[in-house]
Specification:
Order of helices and strands: EHEEHEHEHEEHEEEHEEHEHHHH
CATH superfamily of the domain at 2-171 and 202-228 and 278-290: NAD(P)-binding Rossmann-like Domain
Radius of gyration: 18 Å
Bound molecules: NADP nicotinamide-adenine-dinucleotide phosphate
Distance between the termini: 26 Å
Largest sheet: 7 strands, parallel
Strand order of the largest sheet: 3-2-1-4-5-6-11
Helix content: 25-40%
Strand content: 15-25%
Structural class: alpha/beta
CATH topology of the domain at 2-171 and 202-228 and 278-290: Rossmann fold
Shape: globular
Length: about 300
């Protein structure tokens, strides 16, 4: 298939581009940077938030599938305001990309979603499935993030003229994601809650890429899929494992009262949220399973 990959230069985009090409697909990489290096892909240069520029950039192009992997997280989102641009990419950005997808004749559209869309609260021990409420406002400061994830999924999955699929990824690690954690650990800039914080579902970036290719080829239109590994883990354990594997100092452990003012969004994610997501639907319908079923294997995998 011919795929327009928006976000091809990002943390998930790079391994996804490789996985698509390995599976025999042709890729057009959408980026804002005319000088971007995306080996093996054609370049389409546009800012997705500029609707007219995007439509001009895709004029004359054809593709079978559009994949939306756009975020604005190159600076870690410690504060709620740091998520604003990412929220806009999931609302306005998705709308513009859907319009572009129709213009280039795409019949499938895959979009990046995230398991925190189930809510930044303690969900208890039961694994959450795609049937659980997603995108529900709770009268809290995380409502804009959750609303943006919901709007993103609704636009894509409810489209009647295009086969939309949402990929609810766990927290990313591995490859450049883990390199970022190790760099922050070495610099002493990766605090975790004193008790290790809540439980989160994670996914190695190479497994996220493989699941995305599987969803593109075999996913059911209108569906969301949790793309997570088999063993949720606390933030403290995850970062301790990174420190051990890299032979660096463990993360600084801070009490909530010290963490919240410095990094309120992170604190909500790491302290108030406890979330286990089930990957049963992805395994059953996509013919996919994680090559790194737990963080223990994934953290120690080579990062190249
Ligand atoms: N589920 C998760 O845990 C999750 C999800 C996403 C990201 N993250 C983490 O966030 C960190 C940063 O992510 P990242 O490296 O992917 O960087 P990023 O800065 O979030 O950029 C992601 C991609 O979006 C593209 N993009 C952003 N705004 C755009 C716009 N207006 N128009 C067109 N393209 C646009 C960028 O392309 P250009 O810059 O080339 O234009 C880039 O390819 C990583 O550590 C990653 O693991 C985690």
């Amino acid at each position: 298939m011919r795929v327009l990959l928006a976000g091809a230069t990002g943390a998930i985009g790079r391994p996804l581009l490789d996985a698509l090409r390995t599976a025999g697909h042709e890729v057009l990489a959408l980026t804002r940077k005319p000088t971007a290096e995306v080996p093996g892909a054609g370049l389409v240069v546009a800012d997705v938030l500029d609707r007219d520029a995007l439509m001009r950039a895709v004029d004359g192009i054809s593709a079978d599938v559009v994949i939306h992997q756009l975020t604005a997280l190159s600076k870690p989102p410690a504060r709620y305001a740091d998520m604003r641009l990412t929220n806009t990419l999931r609302t306005t950005g998705t709308r513009h990309l859907l319009e572009a997808a129709r213009a280039i004749g795409a019949r499938r559209f895959l979009t990046q979603s995230m398991v925190p869309g189930y809510g930044y609260v303690d969900h208890g021990p039961r694994p959450l499935t795609e049937r659980d409420p997603f995108g529900r406002p709770r009268g809290s400061r995380t409502d804009p993030m959750v609303a943006a994830l919901h709007a993103n999924e609704r636009q894509v999955c409810a489209a009647d003229d295009i086969e939309g699929i949402a990929l609810r990824y766990g927290a990313f690690y591995g490859l450049s994601g883990s390199q970022g954690f190790v760099d922050a650990l070495r610099a002493g800039r990766l605090p975790v809650p004193r008790d290790g914080g809540g439980t989160m579902s994670w996914i190695h970036l190479s497994d996220a890429a493989a699941a995305t290719v599987a969803a593109m080829e075999r996913g059911r239109a209108g569906q969301a899929y949790n793309i997570v590994d088999d063993e949720p883990v606390t933030w403290g354990r995850m970062f301790d494992e990174h420190a051990r594997a890299a032979g660096t100092r463990p993360p600084r452990r801070l009490p909530g009262w010290a963490l919240r003012p410095a990094a309120p969004y992170f604190a909500t994610l790491m302290i108030d949220t406890s979330l286990r997501a089930s990957n049963a639907r992805a395994k059953a319908e996509l013919g996919w399973k994680p090559a790194f079923p737990t963080y223990r294997e994934g953290v120690r995998a080579p990062r190249a």
